[in-house]
Amino acid sequence: MAAHDSLIPLLGGVDPEQLVSVRELPARDAVHSPWPAWVHPEVVEAYQARGIVEPWKHQSAAADAAHAGSHVVIATGTASGKSLSYQLPVLDAIHRSALEERVSLEPTGAVALYLSPTKALAADQLSAISSLGLATVRADTYDGDTDSGARRWIRDHANLVLANPDMLHYGILPNHTWWARFFRRLTYVIVDEAHSYRGVFGSHVANLLRRLRRVCAYYGADPVFIGASATSAAPAESFGKLIGTPVQAFTEDTSPHGSTTVAFWEPQLTDLRGENGARQRRTVIAETSDLLANLVSAQVRTIAFIKSRRGAESIAANTKRLLSEVDPTLPARVAAYRSGYLPEERRQLEGALRSGRLLGVASTSALELGIDITGLDAVLVAGWPGTRASLLQQIGRAGRSGQDALAAFVASDDPLDTYLVHHPEAVFDVGVEATVFDPANPYVLGPHLCAAAAELPLTVEDLPLFGETAPALLAQLVDQGLLRNRPAGWFWTHPQSAAGMVNLRADGGGPINIIESETGTVLGTMDSPQSHYQAHTGAVYVHQGQSYVVEELNEQDHCAIVTRSNPDYYTQARDVTQIEVISELRNTSWGPIRVCFGEVKVTTQVISFQRKAFVSNEILGEEPLELGARDLFTKSVWFECDNRLLESSGISAADLPGALHAAEHAAIGLLPLVASSDRWDIGGVSTALHADTGLPTIFVYDGHPGGAGFAERGFEAAKTWLGATAEAIRSCECHTGCPSCVQSPKCGNRNNPLSKHGALTLLSMLLAQAPDGEPAPGKDMSGGQSSFH
Predict the structure, then answer these.
(1) Which of 33, 471, 498, 504 could staple 451 via S-S, CB 3.0–4.6 A?
(2) In sequence order, what E strands does 192-241 have?
(3) What global pTM score does this model have?
(4) Where do the coiled-coil regions begin and end (predicted)?
């Protein structure tokens, strides 16, 4: 019996209406390779004692290149053993030099630095390395939880330090003199989950790694960088851009994997009506809960992935309720897993999942990143996880032990999800997305230049490391009084910490402290640009599973006062936007249509928020807000339409605003198809007559100061992007437009006017004018008001 026939009925019957398409991923046999001759026999014995008889071919090839001194990136699928690829050269160098230290009694041997985006992943790596039992390896984690006594021991004695970018930025580089002994001996730097460094975060980490390389050079070290990444487009180019130097990529996956049946599942439209009377689909949370309950009741070990913590908790709770009606012993075998749990809680859940005590887990991406879980039979992905790389990581969690597996992508109310369930080839038959980030973003690079100058005065010789824009930016920093220029270089002369100017995981604006009203406890911080959307009065704020309602946003004192609560709804802010073109940087012509990319000023005002039922998405109410407008200087792609062409296509002046507005909403939703963005990383504006272009215009812009690279990627892949946008609208079975195609959850105009038919006509007209291939980079050029957002 085919895998399709035997596994699909487990989801919900023989031929469920929600099943749109199915893709079979064939099984893959292992290709082994002998242990590299240079690996110390005792290191080989340690791995063999753990049951690893010999490595897979790609592991040996990558390890050979790193051992020979090349910067490398291993970009293969989940469960492909990327960790062995970097552990072999690292542990061999540490083991050999530690043996030599015993003879010389001098701490002169090799050391290595491991960087991961999360503490949990570093802890998992430490556990794996410790299990090898190599007494020569002194490994330890160095993060915000490390006490002061342990920190000094790690600096002085550890030869493998496991940290995260935040600790490297705040704790290690500013205090590099304390780490001098470590930096002199630094031989390898491992950058795990390298594909996760994208957008503004990736831009920050790229500059952080340049600062690391500069400090290493000061101490006479030139470490080999080894990246471990999920499959991504041009991994050598992406990782090379991240570390600032050329690298060699290894992309052939020679690890074994069982066959996987991937179902593309679209929840049905219900009789519930949303904004403007649009029919609503059954929510992804309710649908995924049903599927997880079906699989667990059939004794199928399953993970359900969803992006939000609250979603993971809701799926677990709903599944338990459904199972209690079938078998009272089953609810105890389902749990939620997300960040925010204590380490011992996470380890307990991981152990229960490995052993089979747990049959079902609803998880955020915390279980996607490298945590070693084997023996799973099925994976559910609730809503698009953000990138193809993430989807492939998640569905690759099943079948790792060689058995046939089942995966299902469950579409949420989103144009991209609508497109993908109807076009599985867009997931499996094209390359995965490029990892998009921009180290030259002045809002990111400027503070890093200050931090670098505080670590060591910047010299002319340092400037190529930070790119072509660094000299001009340094001049601006001198004019602002942040740096002083002397014959020996640029100096940081302020008493405060330069590293404090940088927030690696955000875009600046000063943090807002989230304070609990009853105890005065600071629960966390939020970046100022996001506070109007997520910390306005009445907003629901979730911290480590506990819900709070914002009582007051005090921007003057940089705090939001919250009260513990347990609402059965979530909140979404709505805004109105105007956009002004500052300068055109690139352009191309599609006949009479101009496609442009450039710098813009976006003025946004949050005007209200909606309360929505968490399970059904029903709108429970809307409240006005009185918040000031904010300006954002960023980058945008825009499309200037020709009025005569619009008229000849049948779009009347009365229909034009709704057609532009609907096309803009859908395009925002589909941009992640070609750029590794999240829908909330980008914004858009459309107008029937823009003051700067004088024409009907659609803008889609990066929601971060200086830009994040997403809009530029949209310009470069405009034809693919708009083609998918049109197809997503066409594929949706609604009649006049709904959240799955042209409605936006953050539209300040309450999704009015919108014309689904007009958007399809408009996009078809644009695509008919597009030349073959994507727009080529245009020449540099120099360069309003909006109606709808």
Answers:
(1) 498
(2) 224-229
(3) 0.82
(4) none
